[in-house]
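Predict the holo structure. Ligand: calcium ion.
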Amino acid sequence: METIERRVLVVEDERAIADAVAARLRAEGFVVHLAGDGPSAVQAARTFRPDAIVLDVMLPGFDGLEVCRRIQAERPVPILMLTARGDETDLLVGLAVGADDYMAKPFSMRELTARVHALLRRAQKTVAVQPVQPSQPTIRLGDLEINQAERRVLRGGVEAHLTPTEFDLLVHLAGRPRTVLPRERLLADVWGWADASGTRTVDSHIKGLRRKLGADLIRTVHGVGYALEVDR
Ligand code: CA
């Protein structure tokens, strides 16, 4: 059924990991290009034009965070960032510079491919939905304005620059303002994951939304989920 060639750039300097990831993704039908340092990753994003990028943070040249920053400034691409386990700083900076998802090392190949598929599904949805439905309504809630057709968000008239995932998450929350949405449900609806093992990803993106749009916008219901706190 799927005839579109999908290209994944894998950026990792540890050859054994890079080769294993590439082999698995090729087995899944992806066209894979490898880069082993920061500068060649940025170059490969230009020439190979990947549909998604698997990006390790620790790289020679300049690190994955800088790679992410430079690539997203040129042409937005969905990025899955690989971080050292427990490194919260890398994670938060990664999401701030435009990564859509992250995985801590060590990870299973099954999880990696599931994440890459989910990233591409979301990206395709974004591309496919826009031209077909140019009249997607602009959501206005209190001082929040979400222009779905242009994928732009303003709060109090000030534009916030969200990643594609942050945008999708916000639209979901805005679909049911003042209603608590469970993290597992957000994970399934926004990320397309069936299991609940990645709920921390939801938490991280909520942090990103609060940082960009104001801490008061989203309420945490501990042990359950999140609600958008704006006037209908
Ligand atoms: Ca590395």
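The chain is about 45% helix and 20% strand. The CA atoms of residues 9 and 26 lie 11 Å apart.
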